[in-house]
Please model this.
Amino acid sequence: MLAAGKSERMGQWKMSLPWGKSTIIETSVKHALTACSRIILVSGWAHEELSRLFDAPSWEEQREKIRIVKSANWETGMFASACCGFNAASGDVAGLPPWCFLCLGDMPEVSPGTYLRAASFMDSGCLAGSVIPQFKGKKGHPVLLSREAVAYALSLSDTDSMRDVISAFPSLVIPACEIGVLNDIDTPEDYRKHYEK
Model:
């Protein structure tokens, strides 16, 4: 899950903004944990603040499922941060997992059901390189990636992108029943629109 950026368009670090009873990033992590055995949070500009959030007592029971890694190249863009997370995943346990989600930390409206629905396809033996949710004709997040797709991403250079990875393998596009798969929180207007609705 990517949480490395500076949030320049928001004017403050958006991940720690209130969302429900917690914050944007904490809500995103809680929803992802419904389908994921562990979360690798990729930090960057606000590494210390992100670490403090998940060191809080409220995360004590699930802290062992969350690992925070800092992207050395977070300023170069999302692909470098994604590969930082993939590298961390490949170093945990015994190599790359069979599949993993690429999630954005600023998308707290992605429901647990979206994660579970996507995971059910990969668990059922789907041969696609990625599973992508789509709402009303628009593709969104999170993207579920196969081990082969992740390995391919790690073989590329910093000048490449996730589009290069996804286009190299067959994709399975699945319908999403929520607009949350399209809604990231980038600006104060986004925040007011989605949080104060």
